[in-house]
Design goal:
The chain has 2 domains: about 160 residues, NADH Oxidase; about 30 residues, no CATH class. The chain is built from 8 helices and 6 strands, in the order H-H-H-E-H-H-E-H-E-H-E-H-E-E. Helix 2 crosses helix 6 and helix 3 packs antiparallel against helix 6. With about 250 residues, the protein is of the alpha+beta class. About 35% of the residues lie in helices and about 15% in strands. The chain binds flavin mononucleotide.
Length: about 250
């Protein structure tokens, strides 16, 4: 599938490096390297269908190393990764997810039936399942978190995204499952007081990657137009024409 690398964003990025003249050439990735980065970004999908198989330990370690090189608030590195090694434990996690799926369905009201038709996890089919959690003792970290304590979660999300992109580059699918009661998962996995699970990651070989987000394919939601999420100076005010082409104000 080549659609992603031909996207306007890639073309814009390429045009930028041609036009600005401000970036030292040695800092710019080669076109092939840029294409690879954007390809990983655009072809990454949240996967819920897996083909079984295995992830070689060396590959899994590379993915975890990519995650561990994510940015973090105050260099806090609040992420912890726990491998689910036994099928019995996977089944227990899956049961907790199923409980929450039913609760979510009830909470959705009129969209309940449509929601229940969606596949929201591939826990029993993925080659690997890893739980990502926020570490205990996070209250000691104030740098960058005094007014925004949830920056620890933001940092951990960056780590998960790194892992997701690296997995895509390795040809592996990943699904982020967040439908669970964190207290129940923490207790099942023996987490200390203050630690908090934020993701069950299903990782492994897939038969194919969805061309579009599965929730879009299933008409649950559509990608918002980029221009609808870009403002200038005041909330709600659309970006002026120069805004994404380089306005000369700090870019
Ligand atoms: C924080 C977070 C939690 C998510 N939790 C779930 C989940 O519990 N079940 C699920 O099927 N997908 C989950 N997803 C995946 C999203 O549904 C998916 O990212 C979105 O539909 C866009 O699709 P894409 O990732 O393929 O671009 C989660 C994604 C994020 C970022």
């Amino acid at each position: 599938m080549t659609r992603a690398v031909e996207s306007p964003a890639v073309q814009a990025a390429a045009a930028d490096t041609d036009l600005t003249g401000a970036t030292a050439p040695e800092h710019v990735f080669s076109p092939a390297q840029q294409e690879a980065v954007y390809r990983a970004i655009f072809e990454r999908r949240d996967m819920r269908h897996f083909a079984g198989g295995a992830v070689a330990p060396a590959v899994m370690r590379r993915l975890l190393m990519a995650a561990h090189h994510a940015p973090s608030v105050g260099f806090m590195q609040p992420w912890r990764f726990l491998r689910v090694a036994t099928r019995a434990l996977r089944a227990e996690l899956q049961a907790l997810v199923e409980q929450e799926r039913q609760q979510t369905a009830t909470a959705l009201g009129e969209r309940m039936d449509a929601f229940l038709r969606l596949k929201v996890e591939g826990l029993m089919d993925a080659a690997e399942v890893w739980v990502v959690a926020l570490s205990e003792g996070r209250e000691q970290h104030v740098f960058g978190r005094r007014t925004l304590p949830h920056m620890d979660l933001a940092s951990t999300a960056c780590a998960i995204q790194n892992l997701w992109l690296a997995a895509r580059a390795e040809g592996l699918g990943m699904g982020w499952v967040s439908m669970f009661d964190p207290v129940a998962v923490a207790s099942l996995l023996g987490m200390p007081e203050g630690a908090e699970p934020v993701a069950l990651l299903c990782i492994g070989p897939v038969r194919h990657f969805y061309d579009d987000p599965m929730l879009q394919q299933q008409r649950w939601a559509q990608r918002t137009a980029l221009d609808d999420v870009l403002f200038e100076d005041t909330w709600g005010q659309p970006l002026s024409a120069g805004g994404t082409a380089g306005s000369g104000r700090g870019d």
